[in-house]
Amino acid sequence: TTDISREDLGVSDEIENKYGKTDVFNVAVFGVDTRDADSFKGLSDTIMIVSIDAKNKNVKIVSILRDSYVAIDGRKNQKITHAYSFGGAPLAIKTINENFNMNITDYATINFYKLAEAIDILGGIDIDITEDERLELNNIGDDDNPNFQYVEKSGMVHLTGEQASVYSRIRKRDSDNARVDRQIGRASCRERV
Predict the structure, then answer these.
(1) Who's near 37: CB < 8 A, 6+ residues apart?
(2) Do the beta carbons of residue 39 and residue 30 sit within 8 Å?
(3) By C-alpha distance, which of 3, 57, 56, 64 is closest to 28?
(4) What is the structure's pLDDT at 188?
(5) Which terminus of the chain faces fewer neighbouring Cβ atoms within 10 Å, N or C?
(6) Which pLDDT score, from 0 to 100, does residue 185 have?
(7) Ranges of H-type helices in the chain
(8) How far is 72 from 176, CA to CA, in rounded Å?
(9) Average pLDDT, consecutive stretches of 10 residues, N- to C-terminus, the chain (193 residues)
């Protein structure tokens, strides 16, 4: 592994001094859209900050919309999704830190293939889907894989990893906000930036 400096990540002593030491640990999570199962390069179509509060024993997930227009170091202002493709996790983290006054140093990156594998390892996932989501899921899945296993009904369904991964990518039937809802769940505790 390569050592990455605090400066490379946009970590600010000013922010650290302002808030001091807390029991909250933040991790950036990037979901990259790639057609190569072993690649972790490309646009970060999913950008989340997972905040773990050890003192109060809770976890919050904040999603940053991939089309958020921000300053990216060394580039002109543009969509935040591009930062990861320009400079990998270090530039993507720096972009988050500098635009949202964070001091994140840790991250995880997953691609859609690995997401599907992880869900399959867990035995699949139960999700309540609308009829529009079902139709789009089958349409996208069929484009990606001619042997895609169609979802036969809407409502509460059990999805395989591949189906759930495709479900998390749906955005043309509604909006990027709805896509974020699909990615982090429709829980009442979610927030968006």
Answers:
(1) 111, 113, 114
(2) no
(3) 64
(4) 30
(5) N
(6) 60
(7) 13-19, 81-100, 112-121, 131-144, 161-169, 176-184
(8) 21
(9) 76 75 89 83 91 93 91 95 95 96 93 90 93 90 86 95 87 63 49 37
The number of CA neighbours under 13 Å toward the Cβ of 4 is: 17
The per-residue pLDDT for 191 is: 36
In whole angstroms, what is the distance from residue 82 CA to residue 65 CA? Answer: 12
Tell which residue, 96, 99, 94, 106, has the closest CA to residue 10.
Answer: 94
How many other CB atoms are there within 10 angstroms of residue 123's CB atom? 9
Which residue shows structure tokens 């809802």?
181
DSSP state of 21: S
Q: Report the pLDDT value the prediction gives residue 143, as an integer from 0 to 100.
A: 78
Burial (CB count within 10 angstroms: exposed 0-12, middle 13-18, buried 19+), residue 138: middle
